[in-house]
Write a sequence for this structure.
């Protein structure tokens, strides 16, 4: 059921007690999956959350005494679930972001800085609108893959990783103005691509 092999993980990570870690991960795996499923209601996402949490425990705390594993793993699991929700919120903002973007905006303009729309003000979403948004997000992700590397990198850091302009500039090794230019060009290209597919945001 689970695409995870605790023994393989323990062999890839330098640990002082690989067998204890492996045994702990095997014992907690199913409970962690149920906990993640209850939180996110998505099997694939829950599997990813459990996998990421196990890797983080092994990589960062694998050499700790095994009695510390339960508390450490639970904290990591909860943080990973919270991170999933944060990323989901950022993703759901993409359609609003692109609809707020104007092709006439200056290239140094960063749409996220002036995005005024608030999802909470839109009222409850219907199943049809949720499905439409999910389909639009899938198309956005496909178009993101086609962006030039630097535009894609800046866009994902700003609107997926939720990094600010200064953090993105430092990570990319460029100026803040360049980050804004890359993001503006990326949102322009994405909006144009969706418009060409007949999608009106």
């Amino acid at each position: 059921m689970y695409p995870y092999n605790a023994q393989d993980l323990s062999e890839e990570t330098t640990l002082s007690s690989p067998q204890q870690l492996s045994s702990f991960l095997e014992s907690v795996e199913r409970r962690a999956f149920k906990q993640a499923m209850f939180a996110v209601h998505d099997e694939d996402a829950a599997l990813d959350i459990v996998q990421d949490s196990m890797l983080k425990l092994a990589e960062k705390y694998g050499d700790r005494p095994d009695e510390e594993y339960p508390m450490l793993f639970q904290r990591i699991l909860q943080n990973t679930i919270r991170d999933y929700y944060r990323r989901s919120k950022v993703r759901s903002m993409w359609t609003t972001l692109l609809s707020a973007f104007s092709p006439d905006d200056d290239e140094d303009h960063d749409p996220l800085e002036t995005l005024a729309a608030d999802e909470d003000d839109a009222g409850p979403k219907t199943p049809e609108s949720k499905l439409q948004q999910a389909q639009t997000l899938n198309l956005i992700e496909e178009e993101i893959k086609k962006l030039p590397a630097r535009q894609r990198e800046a866009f994902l850091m700003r609107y997926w990783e939720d990094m600010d302009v200064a953090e993105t500039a430092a990570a990319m090794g460029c100026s803040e103005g360049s980050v804004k230019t890359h993001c503006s060009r990326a949102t322009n290209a994405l909006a144009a691509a969706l418009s060409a597919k007949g999608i009106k945001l």
About this structure: DSSP finds nine helices and no strands in the chain. Residues 6-15, 102-106, 111-124 have pLDDT under 50 and may be disordered.
